[in-house]
Amino acid sequence: MKNPLVQGLILIAVFIGFWFALSQIDWKPLLRTSETKQDAEKKLGKLIFSTFESKIVHRKSVVLPLDSIKLRLCKANNIDPISIRLYVVRSSEINAFALPYGYIMVNTALIESCKNEEALAGVLAHEIAHIQKKHIVKKLIKELGSAVIINITTNGAGGEIMREMLHVLTSTAYDRSLEAEADQLATKYLCSAKIDALPFADFLKNMESNNDDEALKWLSTHPDNDERASQIESGVQQCETKTERILATTTWETLLEKVKD
Amino acid sequence: MAFNFTCIGQLGLEYFKRIMIKIRPFSYRPLESEKEQASNSYLMSLVAIIAGLPLPILNLLATFFFYLGNRKSTPFVRWHCLQALFSQVTLVIINSILFWWTIAIITDKAAFTNEYIAYFITVVGYNLVEIVATIYSAIQTRKGLHVEWFFYGTLVNIFTSK
Question: What is the pTM of this model?
Answer without folding.
Answer: 0.59
